[in-house]
Fold this protein.
Amino acid sequence: MERKPRTVLTYGTFDLFHVGHLNLLRRMRALGDRLVVGVSTDEFNALKGKKTVVPFKDRFAIVQGVRYVDQVIAENDWSQKASDIQSLGADVLGMGDDWEGKFDHLSGYCEVVYLPRTKDISSTEIKRVLSALDSEHVVELKAALDIVSTIVRRFE
């Protein structure tokens, strides 16, 4: 008897795609034979109080281009998870451990797992660091780079 492929489903915003996202998707894919990823729309993120840097269509395309991902769908609201699990035949709902316990109510539909995040990296932290670079800091950084470039040229 042929075994049914094991489908894993996960969700995320995937803004400012980084190695933590890649690690999570790779580890999610290792839980099964097929990985389906729901990418939060800009409208849904606004409802969650999140402002993304990268627009939905680009985030969708980036996730679609990851070799561990078999299918990408739009995540439009919190309530669609149960119906997605059923319609996609998902065997596993996987989320980052920052969501620990938040989706346990879906364990009646499939196995629910929470995987650890990659230490010391997140889109939120990247945004925080970038926000410190106001226009005055950017001008100062450019001036410093010009000075360094001048010094380097002297030694060439």
About this structure: The CA atoms of residues 89 and 130 lie 40 Å apart. Residues 135-154 form the longest helix (20 residues). The chain has a mean pLDDT of 87. The longest strand covers residues 34-40.
